[in-house]
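Hi R.,

As promised on Friday, here is the backbone we talked about, encoded as structure tokens. Could you run it through your design pipeline when you get a chance and send me back a sequence?
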């Protein structure tokens, strides 16, 4: 499920909205321990993406992160946001 650069699994089976929420909370805790707060979130065009996206965002926000939601985007947008250091996580 946890890969080198992402997390992959079957939506509704291995990955659900509860998992996404708690992942967001855990990630927010990790970021804050590093003194970082800014994250960008978005999603691809899969049917499961909007719910997972919303839950992850809620977890990050509840964990104290500053979140910019860019909605549906291609992967390149996330890579650019992270590598240019506009955001601390993408």
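Update: got your reply. Pasting your designed sequence below so it's all in one thread:
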């Amino acid at each position: 499920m946890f890969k080198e650069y992402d997390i992959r699994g079957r939506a509704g089976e291995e990955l659900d909205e509860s998992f996404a929420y708690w992942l967001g909370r855990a990630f927010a805790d990790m970021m804050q321990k590093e003194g970082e707060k800014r994250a960008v979130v978005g999603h691809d065009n899969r049917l499961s993406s909007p719910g997972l996206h919303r839950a992850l965002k809620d977890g990050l926000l509840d964990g104290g992160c500053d979140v910019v939601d860019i909605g549906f985007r291609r992967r390149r947008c996330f890579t650019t946001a992270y590598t240019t250091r506009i955001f601390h996580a993408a």
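One thing I noticed while checking it: The chain has a mean pLDDT of 82.

Thanks again,
M.
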